[in-house]
């Protein structure tokens, strides 16, 4: 029986690269979305809600629920399940609507 | 070149899953210029989602036992001459004039297609009649972030909606905790990103997808302590003719059943997750036995330790682009809405066709069959060759479609949610995930303020008014609203959204005026 998803499909990925999540280094594989790279590191939440401040992460996995919004390289409201991870990406937990710095 | 960007296409197909690819291949073979637009970077749709090339998956078929059939269809599509416009998020289709439709899309990085080497940005850079915000070199005219989002308008003499289905969700206490993911979502993340939401993943909800999800999660290394199916499977036995006529479906069920046995995964029917435990992420779930109406039986709750829950309650056709144009819908046996189609897959609006899950969920083989039928029908119309639709092939396809459709309707009926699920909710349960609207507020709107439908509840509470526009909570809100009416349950209203995805105002402002609407 396969131990990992990569074993299951006999994946031989291109060389991995690093991104950061709230300053912590996370390893990502080429072709993974930001959400997939975070899941692979055991991270399930990268947003807090506007009213309750509750943690959220990927839910629908296909770009429909907008629960996985993250701040990517300073830009808020990116759907982590769709945005491809790129070397050096800085992912930060999005608080509320993500525009606190703009005071709107 | 067929479908040269400066010219209108004969047919624009929306969706690159089995229905869309089959429709495109068929229409192209019959001489039409065809473009297939899809939000994803690769063809396949949701069912045949597969890892990006960079992940180097040598055996994608390990996640798809039907992979050879898809590879064959994809091969024919790539050789067909039809254009594949990847990374296009279609947000509206509008009527340009009596003979032309406009398909409006955003192209951007959230599509996952930028820099993926598909060449789609080049193909779509200056489509049909202009109106884009970019010159194709990454510079902008209209103040967009060119890398992020760029509007594109395609012209089409006919449109085929092959937009598939989304997962239907019902809320329950704790369903917003990180680690609770859609069953289809877990499957999608696994198929595309080769990742799991946790090590011990309970699978719950209703519908045949659960078996497929459990078996692939287990094959990929997750421990699945249990599959909780809210319905029984007796519903199938009430439609013996539909079952007997669809042996491939029995085979599929046997494949998944065998996988569950091999991984020692118990399948509990008439059971549901009625609570999720944990503070910042899933630590355990409570599975309760249900009665026939999906009410939890008191005292039957069992706590199961896990670090993730994959949950879904069947699929709901994605019809919003079509209903925005006035296409008629019908209520399916499980309370969703699907497009009304004629024998040749045309919607109630002439010039607009649909294939696959948009006409009711039914699986990829039905989708492929309907796509081919639609491709023939579109070619017959545009080329004024009605004889094309009287061929033996069309009769065979129609017969196969009717047989598979009958099974699909029996299947969804067997998994239709019972009215008792609303009793799972406590007043603090968030029903609308985006706007954080609780069941208590919605019940207040119904009982104290007299709301009787989802729209009124939305206006009073903001449920369904957030980013997802009610895609996650719509079915639940409609059921809760109906609890105040005499009939108890009314179907959720068919989706009507003028914009199918969020669109920056800049993209709207940059639209050219269309001749018919000046």
TrEMBL record, chain A:
Pfam families (UniProt xref): Fer2_4 (PF13510)
SUPFAM superfamilies tied to this protein: 2Fe-2S ferredoxin-like
Matching InterPro entries: 2Fe-2S-bd_N, 2Fe-2S_ferredoxin-like_sf
Keywords: Oxidoreductase
A molecular function GO annotation: oxidoreductase activity
Protein name: Proline dehydrogenase
Organism name: Streptomyces albireticuli
UniProtKB/TrEMBL annotation, chain B:
Residues annotated as domain FAD/NAD(P)-binding: 9-370
CDD domains: GlpA-like_Fer2_BFD-like (cd19946)
Domain of life according to the entry: Bacteria
Composition-biased stretches (Basic and acidic residues): 136-148
Residue span of region Disordered: 113-148
Keywords, alphabetical: Oxidoreductase
Domain BFD-like [2Fe-2S]-binding: 431-478
Gene3D superfamilies in the record: BFD-like [2Fe-2S]-binding domain (1.10.10.1100), FAD/NAD(P)-binding domain (3.50.50.60)
PANTHER family found in the cross-reference section: ANAEROBIC GLYCEROL-3-PHOSPHATE DEHYDROGENASE SUBUNIT B (PTHR42949)
The protein's name in its UniProt record: Oxidase
């Amino acid at each position: 029986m396969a131990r990992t998803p990569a074993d299951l499909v006999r994946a031989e990925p291109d060389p991995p690269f690093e991104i950061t999540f709230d300053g912590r280094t996370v390893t990502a594989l080429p072709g993974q979305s930001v959400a997939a790279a975070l899941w692979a590191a055991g991270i399930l939440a990268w947003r807090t809600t506007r009213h309750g401040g509750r943690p959220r992460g990927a839910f629908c996995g296909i770009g429909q629920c907008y629960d996985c919004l993250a701040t990517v390289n300073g830009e808020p409201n990116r759907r982590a399940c769709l945005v491809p991870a790129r070397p050096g990406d800085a992912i930060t937990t999005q608080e509320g609507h993500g525009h606190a710095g703009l005071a709107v | 070149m067929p479908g040269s960007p400066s010219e209108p296409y004969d047919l624009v197909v929306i969706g690159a899953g089995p229905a869309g690819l089959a429709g495109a291949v068929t229409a192209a073979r019959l001489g039409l210029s065809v473009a297939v637009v899809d939000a994803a970077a690769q063809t396949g749709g949701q069912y045949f989602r597969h890892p990006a090339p960079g992940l180097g998956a040598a055996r994608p078929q390990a996640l798809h036992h039907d992979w050879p059939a898809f590879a064959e269809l994809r091969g024919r599509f790539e050789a067909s001459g039809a254009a594949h416009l990847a990374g296009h998020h279609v947000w509206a289709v509008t009527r340009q004039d009596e003979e032309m439709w406009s398909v409006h899309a955003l192209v951007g990085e959230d599509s996952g297609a930028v820099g993926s080497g598909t060449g789609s940005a080049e193909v779509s850079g200056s489509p049909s009649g202009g109106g884009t915000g970019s010159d194709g070199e990454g510079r902008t005219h209209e103040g967009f972030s060119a890398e992020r989002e760029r509007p594109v308008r395609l012209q089409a003499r006919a449109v085929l909606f092959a937009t598939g289905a989304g997962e239907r969700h019902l809320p329950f206490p704790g369903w917003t905790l990180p680690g609770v993911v859609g069953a289809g979502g877990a499957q999608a993340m696994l198929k595309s990103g080769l990742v799991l939401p946790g090590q011990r993943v309970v699978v719950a909800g209703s519908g045949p997808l659960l078996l497929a999800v459990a078996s692939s999660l287990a094959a990929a290394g997750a421990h699945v302590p249990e599959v909780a199916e809210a319905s029984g499977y007796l519903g199938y036995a009430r439609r013996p003719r539909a079952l007997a006529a669809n042996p491939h479906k029995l085979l599929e069920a046997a494949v998944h059943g065998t996988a569950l046995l091999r991984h020692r995964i118990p399948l509990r029917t008439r059971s549901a997750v009625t609570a999720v435990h944990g503070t910042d992420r899933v630590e355990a779930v409570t599975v309760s036995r249900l009665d026939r109406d999906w009410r939890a039986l008191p005292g039957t709750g069992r706590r199961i330790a896990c670090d993730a829950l994959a949950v879904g309650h069947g699929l709901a056709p994605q019809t919003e682009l079509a209903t925005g144009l006035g296409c008629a819908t019908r209520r399916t046996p499980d309370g969703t809405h699907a497009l009304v189609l004629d024998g040749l897959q045309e919607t109630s609006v002439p010039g607009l066709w649909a294939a696959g899950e948009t006409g009711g969920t039914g699986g990829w083989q039905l989708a492929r069959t309907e796509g081919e039928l639609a491709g023939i029908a579109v070619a017959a119309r545009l080329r004024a060759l009605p004889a094309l639709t009287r061929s033996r092939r069309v009769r065979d396809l129609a017969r196969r479609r009717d047989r598979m459709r009958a099974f699909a309707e029996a299947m969804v009926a067997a998994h239709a949610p019972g009215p008792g699920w609303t009793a799972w909710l406590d007043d603090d349960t968030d029903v609308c995930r985006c706007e954080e609207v609780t069941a208590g507020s919605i019940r207040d709107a119904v009982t104290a303020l007299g709301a009787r439908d989802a729209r009124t509840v939305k206006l009073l509470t903001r449920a369904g008014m957030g980013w997802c526009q009610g895609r996650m909570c719509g079915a639940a809100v409609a059921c809760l609203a109906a609890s105040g009416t005499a009939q108890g349950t009314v179907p959720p209203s068919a989706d009507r959204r003028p914009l199918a995805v969020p669109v920056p105002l800049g993209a709207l402002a940059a639209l050219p005026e269309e001749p018919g609407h000046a």
